[in-house]
Design goal:
Blueprint lengths: L2 E5 L14 E5 L9 E4 L5 H7 L1 E3 L3 H16 L6 H22 L1
Antiparallel strand pairs: 1-3, 1-4, 2-3
Length: about 100
């Protein structure tokens, strides 16, 4: 499964992004970034944090995530912030898997 990540704090260059599984590098900005990279596997949260990478989703995924966020925010009084973050991450993964399955 290919995964696309935006480089938020520096251009994608040697040492600025993880090397393992890297299949494409572009300096074309995506979502106010310095460029993007594509990997043949999902990166760990630790790698994303260390290299300031943010997953890039297509417009359909973004739409559904925002709609789900709205619904969760309306009912979030009973959710702890950490639980919300984990839940939202899982929803994004499920939507991403569904979008890829349909391609």
């Amino acid at each position: 499964m290919m995964k696309k990540y935006a480089c938020m704090e520096r251009p994608p260059a040697p040492g600025a992004v993880p090397r393992e599984g890297l299949v494409h590098v572009s300096d074309e900005p995506v979502k106010d970034s310095w460029g993007y990279v594509i990997y043949d596997h999902p990166l760990s949260e630790a790698d994303c944090d260390q290299y300031s990478l943010v997953p890039v989703y297509d417009e359909l995924t973004d739409y559904y995530v925002k709609e789900i966020e709205k619904q969760i925010c309306a009912a979030s009084d009973s959710l702890i912030a950490w639980d919300y973050k984990c839940f939202l991450s899982r929803i994004k993964d499920l939507i991403d898997d569904e979008v890829e399955r349909r391609m």
